[in-house]
């Protein structure tokens, strides 16, 4: 979770239960439709929580290619995608050992790029710039995923709340 004082930590949260992979993909596609040029989205959670599933669905939705191969960028660190007027950068910081390595990835070079970052805890400064923070956890008894979406902008949170009501919106 982001630390206190971070933009997304000071924002408001939407809690969700995603019952299965199909619902996780549907949620991600709904979220993708609300993303804006320049958004920084942080995807956090333990191994196997669904970060890559969310990122893959968002990328496919944004570039308009539902069958696009979207591998995990664990070894390449950043993979770019373009389509439908969007530049999307998908980063995985799992292998980052020194926070200075993140600067070399060029995540902020194009202010119009939508940037998805898995394992953002490797660079805590990202939380101060994030527009959306998604924390995924395996639900008790492995029944789906618990998802907490934090949004820095309260107006944007209200809009997202309405859109996400079908996904078991829970007060957080």
Features:
Rossmann fold; eight-stranded mixed beta sheet; 8 strands; 27% strand
Within CATH, the superfamily carries the name P-loop containing nucleotide triphosphate hydrolases
Distance between the first and last residues' Cα: 14 Å
Main sheet makeup:
8 strands, mixed
CATH topology: Rossmann fold
Give a structural overview:
This protein is α/β, with parallel strands linked by helices and 172 residues long. It has a single domain, classed as 3-Layer(aba) Sandwich (Rossmann fold). It contains six helices and eight strands; from the N terminus they run αβαβαββαβαββαβ. It has helices at residues 7-10, 21-32, 51-63, 100-103, 126-129, 154-163, and strands at residues 12-18, 40-44, 78-83, 86-92, 114-118, 132-138, 145-151, 170-171. The chain has an eight-stranded mixed sheet with strand order 3-4-5-2-6-7-1-8. Strand 4, helix 4 (100-103) and strand 5 form a beta-alpha-beta unit. Helix 2 packs across helix 3 (51-63).
């Amino acid at each position: 979770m982001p630390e206190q004082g971070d933009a997304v930590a000071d924002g408001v949260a939407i809690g969700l239960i995603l019952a299965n992979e199909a619902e996780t993909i549907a949620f991600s596609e709904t979220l993708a439709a609300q993303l804006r040029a320049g958004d920084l989205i942080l995807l956090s959670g333990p191994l196997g929580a669904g970060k890559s599933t969310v990122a893959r669905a968002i990328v496919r939705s944004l570039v308009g290619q539902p069958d696009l191969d979207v591998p995990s960028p664990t070894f390449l660190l950043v993979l770019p995608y373009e389509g439908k007027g969007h530049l999307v950068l998908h980063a995985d910081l799992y292998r980052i050992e020194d926070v200075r390595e993140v600067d070399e990835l060029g995540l902020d070079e194009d202010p119009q790029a939508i940037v998805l970052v898995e394992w953002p805890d490797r660079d805590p400064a990202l939380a101060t710039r994030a527009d959306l923070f998604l924390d995924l956890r395996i639900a008790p008894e492995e029944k789906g995923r618990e998802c907490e979406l934090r949004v820095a902008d309260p107006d944007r949170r209200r809009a997202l709340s309405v859109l996400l009501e079908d996904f078991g919106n829970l007060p957080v």
